[in-house]
Specification:
With 326 residues, the chain is of the alpha/beta class. 56% of the residues lie in helices and 18% in strands. β6 and β7 form a beta hairpin.
């Protein structure tokens, strides 16, 4: 069966239209034979977002912006339609963030999938968010630096006495044109350099001797036989020979013994412990001293009661008679 020219032309036109349609979608970045789910997000300002801009998760493209509509009945908000690969599951709390994807300011939507254990349906509206892109972050960092530079230049102008740019130009011109102060500074520097050279020449012998002494001292310190290393080794030997460790152990043993003795004394063990903890000895001694004091007082007042003295031995009878008469 032969086809007429009109049918062939029609089929060719249909094929060309299909190829053109698929080619345009391919150039836009749309995968022709992939299946998508459609989601929506509302923004107050899309900041240059256009159709065919990508939708990404962690830098991986999972869809693209298909349409942007201005909704004047909702305060001129913008409704963004996204096609996302149906293999990507979205759950409760899923959000889209509008960010700058490169230094040129190209926009993209970054997607957070949310809780996929509670999936959302095709055609739902996601929550929107706006994050600072690369350019905005650079601007945010550069703004404080620019302000500091402005304040620094203002302080420099104040120090130099320049109130505006013309004053600064006049000051610079004056410094460049007037070479008297510069010449004086150079002459002073040359004079200072000559003075330093004279001092070095006058004290060259002493400096050389000092340097030589330093070199000698360095060699002596680094001497393998009499330097610092052998001296430290001898010092270690002396310390070891003193048997400091054994002495410390003996002191520790003595301290433990004294501690044991003190403990026993506090607990009332032994004679010393009883003396420290039992006050009966103190009470007895105190009572004895009081009786002895009374005895001495009585002896001083009545000595005849305790002492009887006679050359012929008749003293006792006379005393007794005298006492009887009394």
């Amino acid at each position: 069966m032969k086809l007429s020219k009109e049918i062939k032309v029609s089929l060719l036109a249909i094929v060309a239209a299909v190829i053109l349609f698929l080619g345009v979608r391919f150039l836009k970045g749309t995968e022709v034979f992939s299946r998508f789910n459609t989601y929506y997000v509302v923004y107050d300002n899309i900041e240059g977002l256009t159709t065919s801009n990508p939708v990404m998760i962690n830098g991986y493209k999972v869809g693209q912006v298909m349409k942007i509509e201005l909704e004047q009945n909702r305060g001129n908000s913008l409704l963004v339609t996204m096609n996302i690969d149906e293999k990507i599951l979205l759950g409760e709390g899923a959000t889209t963030s509008l960010v700058s994807s490169d230094l040129l300011g190209s926009k993209a939507l970054y997607l957070k999938v949310g809780d996929i254990s509670q999936p959302i349906d095709d055609g739902d509206t996601l929550r929107s968010n706006v994050e600072l892109g690369i350019v905005e972050r650079v601007q945010a960092q550069a703004l404080p630096i620019t302000e500091k530079l402005d304040s620094t230049l203002a302080r420099v102008n104040q120090i130099l006495g320049a109130n505006d740019q013309s004053d600064m130009s006049n000051i610079i011109g004056t410094l460049v044109g007037d070479t008297t102060s510069v010449s004086a500074a150079v002459n002073n520097l040359e004079g200072t350099t000559r003075s330093i050279n004279d001092i070095l020449q006058q004290n060259e012998r002493g400096l050389n001797a000092t340097i030589a002494n330093l070199e000698l001292l360095t060699r002596q310190l680094s001497d393998p036989e009499n330097g610092v290393g052998p001296l430290l080794a001898k010092l270690n030997q002396k310390v070891d020979s003193l048997q400091i460790q054994s002495t410390i152990e003996e002191f520790e043993a003595i301290a433990q013994t004294l501690n044991q003795i003190t403990t026993k004394m506090n607990e009332g063990e032994g004679s010393m412990g009883k003396l420290l903890n039992d006050d009966s000895l103190y009470t007895n001694l105190n009572s004895t001293a009081r009786d002895l004091d009374l005895l001495l007082v009585d002896f001083r007042e009545n000595p005849k009661r305790y002492v009887h003295f006679s050359v012929f031995g008749g003293g006792k009878d006379k005393d007794k008679k005298k006492d009887g008469n009394e």
